[in-house]
What does this fold into?
Amino acid sequence: MDSMGEAGLRLLSLTQGLIPEKPIACKHATDPTAWELEQAGRKHRWPKIRKINKDCFNAIFEKVEAFELRLIEVLDLPSLDELRADAIGEPVPGYDDRVFVYNKAAQRGYDAAVLDLEEDILGTRELEQKQAVVPAAVLMQYMFLSFTVGISETVNLLKAHKLPDMTDDEIDAMRLLVQQDNVYFRAAYDVGASRIRAEIQSSWREGFHQTLLDMAKGKKSVLQAGRAMRKQVGEGKMWYWNRIARSESTLMINSAFDLQSRAAEVNFEEWSIAAGACEICDQFEGRVWKLGEGPQPVTHTHPHCMCIRIPLWETDKDVRDKWDRETPYDAPYSKDDRDGGLI
Ligand SMILES: [Zn+2]
Ligand SMILES: [Zn+2]
It folds into this structure.
């Protein structure tokens, strides 16, 4: 993707609805938006995770499209076809004089639509009611799949790195059986869901609501309101959901790894970078920590990180000190960190 340059990436991302409007969430340095797009183009080494990430993105895309259609009705905006045509620069006549109105009924309609979007993707009410039934929420379904793949791939890694006196059958006997009401899965899921809920609160419930108030006050046209919708909360925000689909999946694999490795009484963890890894992840490659003491993919790197850890009972390598640096989300990595001074 390097040869494409930023303009090429932006064009590609436009067609995929993936344009980041601001530097990546972890704010580690002022990266060009192309950085995230490049990271977002990499694929996971495990085909099952690759498929989960893609399917999860597509499933969220369907919900976002339904959300746009609903807003078009509630806010009385031009049709989706017209807004899509407008997005690629085609003329959409007939809307210049139609002033956008955001009355109480429209505000209530917007609120209700956001609430349903949140429920469809995150399953907020479902979680509050602590239902142990098979969840309907898109993200919960796919994160559970990532969690189960994390368990089975950790078992595969345990077999690949087993001690000479161990058999595969013994390792299979250590495999954890995981269900959707598993407390560890739910706890890990809750952490991710609450982060996304906070984003929905600030960007959807407050940010875009304010935009709509401003647009009505400024007597903007319905076409302008439609453009803003697509950019802030619609298809133009799919880069955010792509980040979520991929990063949360890695976090699920992290949780599964921790759980399964502890159950197998493993002693160490070794970092294994993904193909095309960045200058941060690169520094962790092949490093070993005591189990549970090392940095974790995404948590200590960045969104879209596809690195994994390998569970080891024994190692010849130096065992590093416990990783206790703040996460880059709280304390961004400096240029020195990125240039090889992280570890
Ligand atoms: Zn990286
Ligand atoms: Zn990584």
Notes: The two ends are 28 Å apart (CA to CA). Residues 41 and 198 are 26 Å apart (CA to CA).
